[in-house]
Design a protein that fits this description.
Blueprint lengths: L9 H8 L3 H8 L4 E5 L2 H7 L22 H6 L4 E7 L9 H17 L5 E3 L3 H9 L3 E8 L19 E5 L25 H13 L2 E3 L5 H10 L7 E5 L13 H9 L3 E4 L16 H14 L4 E3 L20 H9 L4 H20 L1
Parallel strand pairs: 1-2, 2-4, 3-4, 4-5, 5-6, 7-8, 8-9
Helix pairs in contact: 1-2, 2-11
Length: 356
């Protein structure tokens, strides 16, 4: 199925989504970036071809089959961070090699479609890619334990290829303790090695991503992090709206904002306080609204976690529904400037502050 050029018929897209033409026009005029796409995990597990247009899979675009390159292009997403997630079942000694193989594999997939995609490393490269009509793909790592044998393992990352590393995932590691109920070492945060790991990421100008880490580890990282560099929480909810082990509280929001970083709101329905199978996109905006009310409009972003085995709102299952978020924001009376910041401007500002 060929991609539709919504720029040629924005009114048609608005009618199809049941939203205003104003929302679609504003969306199309904006930088639109997602801080966390996990689609590559399905390529690794089942050979899911990112370059082909897929349907909604076995579960109606729940769990997987939410994102592919044709839908990203049709949705006019200007950029995203595409991640390689660490497999905790791998032997520690094998993880660095496998990680590098996967990074190169993901990079090669993007390079196989140069007319539509380009791997970028900083804000300047992003601008050039978008100016050339490409989707700008940042690369990230979820699970710092892929590189936690020693600090020298970080030197294996080539040419600033990785923009950010999520310190831990759904399991604890040598670095620190996860926020997930599966985590061990309750009451502990970052290890001494984890503190050195954060300092090394700062030196390398790799974002320290504090999604998934427990509260103790979060503030341990803040304490040793270079405060002149922005921090990220790439995909989370906020406990000020929905208390949950996966969400961050107001003090954590302020700690990120104090560094000039940004917090990406994810789309897992129950983390947002919605029914798992029946959530609505309105919930995403409620969490964004709380971030704005707590620390200001310069520190909220979108971090879907699409294809990360999530069950998103039923009216936000794929990138093709993203303009619905703009419609909800407009109905709240938000300015075009605020909406543009949340869609992508805040993340780009943070990237520029870290790397130029």
């Amino acid at each position: 199925m060929p991609a539709i050029d919504h720029r040629a018929d924005p009114a048609g897209w608005a009618r199809a989504l049941g939203i205003s033409r104003e929302a679609v026009d504003l969306y199309l005029a904006s930088d639109v970036l997602d801080l966390h796409l996990d689609s590559f995990i399905w390529t690794r597990l089942f050979g899911y071809d990112l370059r082909k247009r897929h349907g909604e899979g076995l579960f109606g675009a729940r769990i997987y089959s939410q994102v592919d390159f044709p839908r990203v292009r049709e949705a006019a997403m200007t950029g995203a961070t595409w991640v390689v997630t660490t497999n905790p079942g791998r032997r520690a000694a094998a993880r660095p090699k496998i990680l590098l193989e996967n990074l190169r594999r993901l990079q090669a997939i993007f390079e196989s479609v140069p007319e539509d995609f380009r791997v970028v490393r900083n804000a300047a490269e992003y601008r050039r890619a978008v100016g050339d009509g490409r989707h700008a793909a940042f690369l990230g790592i979820q699970g710092g334990n892929a590189l936690d044998r020693n600090l020298d393992a970080l030197d294996l990352i080539p040419d600033d290829l990785v923009l950010r590393i999520t310190l831990v995932h759904l399991y604890s590691s040598r670095i620190g303790v996860t926020s997930a109920p599966t985590g061990s070492r309750r009451g502990q945060g970052l290890s001494n090695f984890g503190r050195e790991f954060v300092r090394r990421l700062d030196e390398m100008r790799i974002f320290v991503d504090l999604a998934h880490i427990n509260r103790e580890g979060f503030f341990d990282a803040v304490a040793v992090h270079d405060p002149s560099l922005p921090l990220l929480v790439t995909h989370t909810g906020v406990s000020g709206v929905t208390p949950h082990w996966r969400n961050v509280d107001d003090e954590q929001l302020r700690a990120v904002a104090d560094t000039g970083g940004t917090v990406g709101v994810m789309y897992q329905s129950n983390f947002l306080g919605e029914p798992t199978w029946g959530g609505r996109a309105e919930a995403v905006v409620r969490h964004l609204e709380h971030i704005v009310a707590t620390v200001g409009e310069d520190f909220a972003s979108l971090g879907s976690d699409w294809d990360g085995a999530i069950i998103p709102p039923r009216d936000l299952r794929t990138p093709l529904e993203l303009p619905r978020l703009v419609e909800i924001m407009l109905r709240r009376g938000w300015s075009a400037d605020r909406i543009g910041k949340i869609l992508g401007g805040n993340f780009l500002r943070a990237v520029a502050a870290l790397r130029g």
